[in-house]
Amino acid sequence: MSRIEAKFNALRAAKKKALIPYVTAGFPAPASTVPMLHALVEAGCDVLEIGVPFSDPMADGPAIQRSSEAALKHGVGLVDVIGMVREFRTRDASTPVVLMGYANPIEAMGVEQFVAAAAKAGVDGVIVVDYPPEECGPFAALCAKNGIDQVFLLAPTSTDARIKEVARVGRGYLYYVSLKGVTGAGHIDVSEVAAQLPRIRAVSKLPIGVGFGIRDAASAKAISAVADAVVIGSRIIEEIEAAGEKDAVARVSALIRPIRAALDA
Prior knowledge:
This protein has twelve helices and nine strands.
């Protein structure tokens, strides 16, 4: 059983919903990433999504784009991100870690080398935005062989055929993008999400996390009524931007704690 599956099973038994934060590795500085990850766990997060900096993050809005650009200026690449996971694991052997990013850095490193290094470092899952399920069979199989769950995105525009394909190939959990657009865009429509999720649950027993547009305790609580997990990213990145390197960890912890409390209320 993977760490991701074990975590969701434990949360289900406790009748709790998962809180999944997204942070960009190397932002606001390389040295701040691992302390930030530990702080997120201490504040009540259940699964950690770590963004791999990339120069053309097509699914990401302005805030995450800026964080990626800043991390790249610090020289942070995929090998560094894997190293951060390895460092995180020296103190935390149980919290699931998912790398989120794009195909280019993986292809540049070499698919087999990436999967082997990620598994050895303690990565539990990967979200590769531009690896569609129809075209990544060998990659998905390699991940599965090495104990890494490949998590796929679904959207309001996903067809029934795409949902079935993702349900067939995906592992760990499914990530439902709540709106048409990039991260940080728009206002989340809970009723629309509630209307769409039954289509997914009809063909998959995997937990469903919902992201894009969740910004505070109220929106997280509303989404948790229909989803198994809430994913919050742009709002965290904006908090880090506002705080600066010195105060980023404290500010993000202060943001996350009331969201955790709202989910548990």
